[in-house]
Amino acid sequence: MFGLFKSNPTKKMRKQLQQLQQKAMEMQRNGDIRGSSDISQEADELWKKIQALEAKQK
After folding, report:
1. What is the 3-state secondary structure (H, E, C) of the chain?
2. Mind telling me which SUPFAM superfamilies this protein's record contains (predicted)?
């Protein structure tokens, strides 16, 4: 009940991750493979941070 109003710190990060993955996919489709891999690397780092935060919460 008290967790109802508690903000979820990973929610915003997951949204950002989804945007990065979408951007990487669009870059890859347009032929910018190098740019796509850079964005994918950022997304992977963000995913590791999300997993670490979720592991702490449990």
Report:
1. CHHHHCCCHHHHHHHHHHHHHHHHHHHHHCCCHHHHHHHHHHHHHHHHHHHHHHHHHC
2. YheA/YmcA-like (SSF158622)
| 8 Å CB contact between 24 and 39 | yes
Per-residue pLDDT of the chain (58 residues; tens, 9 = 90+): 566 667 788 899 999 999 999 999 999 999 999 999 999 999 999 999 999 999 988 7
Question: Residue 58 is encoded by which pair of tokens?
Answer: 């449990």
